[in-house]
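Q: what does this look like with fe (ii) ion bound?
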Amino acid sequence: MLKSSIKIFLFLYKFKNMLELKKSNYMTILKTTYTYINENFYTNIAIAYSHKIEAIDSLANLQIKFPNAIIKETKANTVLYPGFINTHVHLEFSSNKTTLKYGEFIPWLDSVIKNREDLVAECDNRVMKKACNEMLASGVTTFGAISSFGVELEVCTQTPQKVIFFNELIGSNATTADMLYADFLERLDTSKNCINKGIIPAIAIHSPYSVHPIVLKRAINVAISEKLPLSAHFLESQAEREWLEKESGEFLDFFKKFFSTSRAVTNISEFIESFDEIPTHFTHAVQATKEELAYLAEKNHSIAHCPRSNRLLGCGRLPVEELITLGIPFSVATDGLSSNNSLNIFDELRASLMLHHQAPLDKFSNLLIKAITSVPAKFFNLNSGLIEIGKDADFAIVTLPDMPSSVEDIALQTILHTNEVTEVIIGGKIISS
Ligand code: BEZ
Ligand code: FE2
């Protein structure tokens, strides 16, 4: 009995070793100076990966375990991060540079309406590919594309990055809402056919002022029943708040002019409560009160923080300190080139770092790195955003210009000194931008 147990044990042991040897044929062992694990920066750590992370250990131990693996040792002062996640971008306006009017929200919106056709016409696949490449060069391996027409789907299937493809629902007018909803469903279906090309189908609600509550509820029910990621622009401008609260202000003229109405289709509390059953990624929320933020926290929602977009459209500052106190998870996102001068995620992190000047520097820098890695990965249920066994092998390797004087400063120094990352790896493959 004992003999046969030993035999079985030896057989299993040999079998396991055989499997590992076989695995090591297509494995890479990567050793950088620092590795970002569990919000800390470790030295003397290497990782072994195929399309997923297989093991984390010292280089010597991994070499013993996977003798046939390719060894990749980087230069000095490199940091291995999980690939970055930009949760909110509009690719279809990527041709805008100097056309749109910045400074205040409604004049900007007027300029979007005036120039929309030209901007969208100029924005061909080449322009959108360039936008994807700009994100890639800054280490973004996953992004959330907000799509009003579906025109960016082809580029999103071709880009090496994973794309959360947010089909956007718009339409406040009851008479056209059904038609727009049908179009939205069709776009959603088309994106579902691209799952094998790196597309994660998802739903975006344009905003509280521009979506009729009846179709809003229908779209939310689709997101709940099909477990799709859900996002919505929310309380971006002072004008939006005034319109939803009092049906007055600059949006009154806007709605009279373009929609012949002086009535808002919803109010703030009705809109937020529509999302009670599904944790949602709200973009901006700059004009939300403490009470509204507390409500978002209670319902497990998250926020996309777009500091440069908010600054350029005169919308104000998101009080991140309130979010931190309330425990609301937030991402840092670029928004589109319709309200930004680049899609480089490090430009956005630097803007956030400078904007929130009262936040403790090192602590906030670490939080910013989380806001483009583990935090968005968690709320969108992505198998990435962390260097952990079993996670997808999506990485961004950053090279610091010099040796950091302390590991506590690495997040800050990364944010200050990185424009382009040294290497991007997605699903275990090196990607050149
Ligand atoms: C709407 O479709 O109702 C709408 C679209 C853009 C801005 C405002 C309203
Ligand atoms: Fe946006």
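The radius of gyration is 23 Å. The longest strand covers residues 140-147.
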